[in-house]
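Re: your question from the hallway

Yes, I did run it. Sequences:
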Amino acid sequence: MPGKILVAVDGSDAGARALAFAHARARQDGGSLMLVHVLEWSPYTFLTKEELEERHARRKQELARAEAAIIAPLAAKYEGQGVGIETAIKYGHVTETICDVATEIGATEIVTGRTGNSGVMSRVFGSVAGTLAQIAPVPCTIVP
Amino acid sequence: MTSIFTRFGAAVAAFVATTAALGSAAQAQGIDETVNQIFLASTGWFVNFIFAPIPGTGFSWIVAWLVIAASVFTLYFGFIQFRVWRHSIQLVSGKYSDPNDAGEVSHFQALATALSGTVGLGNIAGVAVAVTIGGAGATFWMILAGLLGMASKFTECTLGVKYRNEYPDGTVSGGPMYYITKGFAERGLPGGKPLAVLFAIFCVLGSLGGGNMFQSNQAHQQLTGVLGQYPGWITGVVFAAIVFAVIIGGLKSIAQVTERVVPLMGVLYVGTALIILVMYYDRIGWAFGQIFDGAFTGNGIAGGMIGALIQGFRRAAFSNEAGVGSAAIAHSAVRTKEPITEGFVSLLEPFIDTVVICTMTALVIIITGQLTTDAATGLYVLGENGQIVTASGATGVGLTSAAFGAALPWFPYVLVVAVLLFAFSTMISWSYYGLKAWTYLFGEGRKQEITFKVIFCIFVVIGAAASLGPVIDFSDAAIFAMAVVNIVGLYFLMPVVKRELNSYLERLESGAIKRFK
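Structure:
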């Protein structure tokens, strides 16, 4: 299935494995990749006065850090191998934002890794991969 | 970490020494009295000036000043508070927020933070003061002042965002000092700088008065109500130590926790008030009757209708700070392409603060029968000081506590926690406003900041030790002095807001302002 594959990454090894998998698929089918990293953020939280004042500066730092530590190294690894790679860093609720981006860019598939938190933790807090599997607007592949 | 604790310890020692030095008598109560006397002697002239009556009337000029300003803004912007509230709510809920701007301060966050600075003891203790002096009728004027105040808040917060300073590191500073200087310069008006400096001076005083001493004073009163009598300076020193830890020691986590718990407390407070109203549902009609009757007759309070009006307006202004200029400092941090949207959002503040929360407090006090009336005449029973005699004998926060306690005996304990948290969050907010004014006057820098913060902590102790009368007078006077300067600025700059408003409303109508959700 050619087209654009959205790869959701979080800087973990699982994310790297998901990208490797998606890259192989895209290369085989002549598709391209959209690498997305989401910073968890809610506009309905409460901030102190100092946090309000520093927010814009902090956002710039956070974006720069995510680009340097997560997105750039992954993109660099697969550069020049014949598969087009676009990247995006977003703020928002992680799974909802991934789904929004997928719809917006017309992705044909979402690929993500899973960290493998088993049992209680994921039952209580839910997991990104699990939620994606349930609400993704396009086929979703979870790479272990 | 150790350095924080060393500084912390040193500070506590310093405060104890300062407070001890203020009183020559070894008696703890003696310290409180001495603080009270020195305080009264040094602030009396300022208070007398601010509350001076208009010659030939009993009406203080400052109250007239606030009422006229709020009415002028309401008329000038064509009853803006009633025209745009629906759009305000849409803005707060994020319907017009571009998803690509996610991660910046949202309208909701700016509103919540500004509210946690204004929702405080003004809503709990201030209202109690208003009804003991002005009777139930003061509530009517308070609500009216809240509704009119929405227009003042709208004007100042729009200007706060429009004329803020943005620094290369991405941080922002805004507020009346900045819009008065920059706005006046832009319109070619003289006198911007001196006015801004005057505002900053009053803002520092206001932060020490209403934003600090009044809070620690009422927190102490509430604590003694539950724990029994003990000297005020003890509460002061403990409070000062915690405030010190946050604003100087950098223990941000305390401020963050407070910021998250205060909204919950606010909801709990209003929720409980609603439950009490349901419990006394058969008296709600009577209570509103008292409010309307008292508003125009005074029901026998000292000063009659005018007395009720003055109290209502005074306490409303003190509670929602509309026209004072403080909220403009908090709101200016929002990153929006349209300054006017921040004005729309901020006008919800006086509504929530005064029309909802203050009214709840007043209703609970009235409905539980705290204000004693003469059975024969139906008029209030007045004490020697001209105030209405309350059922429990308490005033200020004690009265609110007694009113809630009359319906729900356990609530005064919850109220202690709420009062302490409200007092604390208001202090932290005002330490920020005061600091902004201070650095505007003396320049940005670590030394300047520390100086102000230490002074701020010392005033926490003074506030807790002094008695309510002088503290509340000085607090009001300082906050109203801010309003004097700020409103002069608003009058000159309101055409700027009008331009922004018309342009925005046109684009909203034509669909040029995009809705995202």
